[in-house]
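Lecture notes, continued. The same structure-token format from the folding unit now serves as the input rather than the output. Read the line below as a description of shape only.
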């Protein structure tokens, strides 16, 4: 790609995408910024700051001397990300909409829009890398060099076409270096706090947000002995491994009278949709919270083909340490594309709806949506 090639950068208003645009301009590319508006139901809310983010993105574009365009993808987002998010929650699972947003909006709707603008590549501020493997001729998705910021987990559904058109300029840097560059060149958002959570939820209480879209059906909270120890507000509002917000603090454990169990915290361990029952256990390492394997569906592989069965590493949630695992083809009768993982060391709170992402060293191979906490 020639250094005069046009690269369209997704400017979010944050420091990572701002420094990405700067680095590409320094490398001689023609850089154009696009601000993606993906949510507008309560845009004036204190919890969703897209208007302020656009002001920050525009200020960055002004300092860098690049054009910026404001593009509204809210309809696509609602149809392809948010509706799926609600369907999953209503089915009792815990989805990761950021993964779906990357696959459907940032690297599909945004990519298509950038290509219509004559771009040869797009770029974002994600902490990961792309490498062309000379032996296979395929593009590989690699972890970012800053292990504390690596975002390959969220991008594991990218395919060869998407990877071949994408640049991740800050993937080679530590976050501290990114902040230093922003400070050195006088970017107005150099010290801006990193955004957390999903745009359409922002910093608001999660249960309060879901209340607006999902109906409540209260039911019993039971312990492993079958005793009813409380009432839940609706199974959709809980996730496996959840400790806060259960409303059952102070329930005494067996043996509490001997000075032990009353302070042992409760965790969500199972959700029985058929009986509308939430099962909870005491103790972080209760057997009900540990899984020696999982079954994943809706698999997506960066190479376009599934890796060979064998030994790899996996994450079953973001920020988890890579866990050694054995990949095997899905059991007979499974709906394709699917796979099973077996773990030599049991994994904690493997959660249906979350993604199991597979790694071979630094290379992110792809993954799938966890369908069950153990292979069938």
């Amino acid at each position: 790609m020639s250094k005069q090639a046009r690269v369209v950068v997704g400017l979010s208003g944050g420091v990572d995408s701002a420094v990405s645009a700067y680095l590409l301009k320094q490398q001689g590319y023609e850089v154009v910024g696009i601000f993606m508006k993906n949510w507008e139901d309560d845009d004036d809310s204190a919890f969703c700051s897209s208007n302020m983010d656009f002001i920050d993105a525009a200020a960055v574009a002004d300092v860098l001397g690049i054009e910026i365009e404001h593009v509204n993808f809210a309809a696509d987002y609602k149809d392809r990300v948010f509706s799926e998010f609600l369907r999953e929650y209503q089915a009792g699972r815990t989805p990761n909409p950021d993964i779906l947003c990357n696959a459907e909006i940032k690297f599909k709707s945004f990519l298509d829009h950038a290509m219509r603008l004559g771009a040869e590549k797009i770029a974002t501020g994600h902490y990961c890398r792309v490498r062309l493997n000379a032996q296979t001729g395929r593009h590989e998705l690699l972890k970012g060099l800053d292990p504390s910021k690596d975002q390959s987990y969220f991008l594991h559904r990218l395919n060869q076409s998407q990877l071949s058109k994408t640049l991740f300029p800050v993937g080679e840097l530590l976050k501290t270096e990114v902040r230093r560059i922003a400070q050195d060149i006088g970017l107005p958002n150099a010290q801006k706090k990193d955004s957390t959570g999903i745009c359409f939820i922002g910093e608001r209480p999660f249960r309060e947000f879901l209340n607006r879209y999902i109906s409540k059906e209260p039911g019993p909270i039971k312990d492993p002995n079958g005793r009813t120890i409380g009432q839940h507000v609706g199974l959709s509002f809980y996730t496996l491994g959840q400790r806060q917000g259960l409303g059952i603090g102070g329930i005494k454990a067996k043996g509490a009278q001997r000075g032990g169990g009353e302070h042992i915290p409760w965790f969500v361990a199972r959700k029985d949709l058929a009986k509308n029952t939430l099962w909870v256990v005491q103790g972080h390492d209760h057997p009900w919270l540990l899984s020696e394997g999982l079954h994943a569906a809706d698999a997506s592989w960066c190479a376009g083909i599934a890796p060979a069965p064998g030994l790899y590493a996996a994450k079953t949630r973001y920020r988890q340490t890579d866990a050694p695992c054995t990949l095997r083809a899905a059991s007979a009768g499974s709906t394709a594309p699917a796979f099973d993982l077996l773990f030599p060391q049991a994994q904690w709170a493997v959660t249906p709806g979350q993604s199991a992402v597979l790694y071979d060293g630094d290379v992110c191979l792809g993954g799938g949506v966890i369908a069950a906490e153990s292979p069938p």
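Point for the exam: The radius of gyration is 22 Å.
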